[in-house]
């Protein structure tokens, strides 16, 4: 199994699950929601709610949907391999949902960041820039070379 | 699996001083490497649905503005000949609803979340570090200046400052932002519910407007795709990325859909530019892309409550392009209504084409974009003290609208008010000239006339010249009290602009004091008349026009220093008396 692809899929699972549901204790209201006239959509809507039950049956079409969100292509064999793994993950989330958090205050994130001070606006060039840039998979002169992007947007 | 050794190589290549602070953060950040590999391997990437920050590449598609404008007229005339006939009757029946999202690049010294310099025009990929490259294990730390600038703009727009706002990740799958997401603010922006006030140009009908501001939020810019534009033609399968701009701080200002015409929208953008320049938080330069406007346009029958289908327009890099793009789009939508083809107005993003002067389909929006916002776990909430907001509030300069109201109250015409208050440095200079005691109207005229012409000619700003406000006030006073003539004044002004110093010292050093002594003038008149007996004869026989000739001779003889009023008086006395 392609580890990179698995990681991508896992990440997408997190996204689809919806941040507020994932990081907030059950039964607490999601944080204040910004109502705006722009078309914004929080991840906690639509798709996520369908996954919230531990008994949800994860279908191949769900795997494909996740793959699309992760911008990766999966072979039918890979879809087959992913399906039980993802089903298992949903089970774990289901277990998490059962934890009693009535006495725990709602939080947007793991609150171990403390009161980190802001940074002064003073430039400090990164010393190992060359070493870092040398690790870029492919370069062209001073540029990072990547497959043509935005093709479908511009043509 | 071929990529994995590379992953390890990248991790190993991190400097030894580079600390992975917490296993939690690491687990949150597998994406950057993944996305790099995805980008490396085209077979992995599926069709990318969307580029939110696509504007950075779009600007490179522009043709030179103006060059092909005349062609457009012809084009539209043939293209829409049927609709233009009825447009005159159709347009007044409809109303456009326009909302604008503006990205303002902040002029901080460093990026939003790392200490990389953020200057424009540096060697490609020179200002990068693990944070803005999105390498695993690093922690972004917010630049204090970004908060300061956001609060300043929020206050200037009369918005409510949220004392406890937060950052979110907005999913973004392009190589110009290697993290795979953009750090932005989603449900709790730093400021919300403001408004902007502006005065429309007098020559275009004038009028005062107030438009609502929905929200202002902080976010990071993407890098630049250098060859995206060229690729279209060359067919090269690659793009080049410069990540210097990745992570540079932006403020996104979202307006209410309050504008109704292309002019109002362009003036909204111009006022926002003025505001950020007054505040000193951005250069607001549209050509360089430091200020980018995405416009949403829909039309509805007048009286209808319901909004029509909204179309987004991108790729406008000047206010006039904005106005033309919007007016084109309004006409396009209205004529579709007129032809009974309203269903052809679809939710899409259209690009403004400067060359053909029209909007073209860039992509359809199939359903709403799924950004999957996610609270940014690496950054704590942005908690601001009330005292900090108060401090920012008291540090605000006089804002453009306040300035215009003050100038208006002083008795300047709206036309003059708009010119003088347009540029912060000009208005500051003007105010200082007044403080130094100059006459209001004269000071305004000198600044809008000779000084503006000089600056334009020399491609300079008022800050680049050596003229001080005090020297200009002194010069104006010397002309007013007859010490020098207006004509000499213009010469002295050029010296002051070039070399500086005081008006008085230049006048004295160059011997330019106006000749206002009647006896001296009389002697000069006598001399000129004596030298031109033929013309004197002709004058006396009725050719009165020759007074101008004598005046010219006297001006020439005195090097322009002779007091024109006294000169004419004495000249007439001599010519008619003797
Ligand atoms: Zn950096």
Automatic annotation (TrEMBL), chain A:
State the name under which the record lists this protein. Glutamyl-tRNA(Gln) amidotransferase subunit C, chloroplastic/mitochondrial
Name the domain of life. Eukaryota
In the UniProt record, the gene name given for this protein reads GATC
Task: Output the HAMAP family linked to this UniProt entry.
Answer: GatC
Q: Name one Pfam family in it.
A: GatC
Protein family (similarity comment): Belongs to the GatC family.
Question: What does the annotation say about its assembly with partners?
Answer: Subunit of the heterotrimeric GatCAB amidotransferase (AdT) complex, composed of A, B and C subunits.
Please, one GO biological process term? glutaminyl-tRNAGln biosynthesis via transamidation
Q: Where in the cell is it found?
A: Mitochondrion; Plastid, Chloroplast
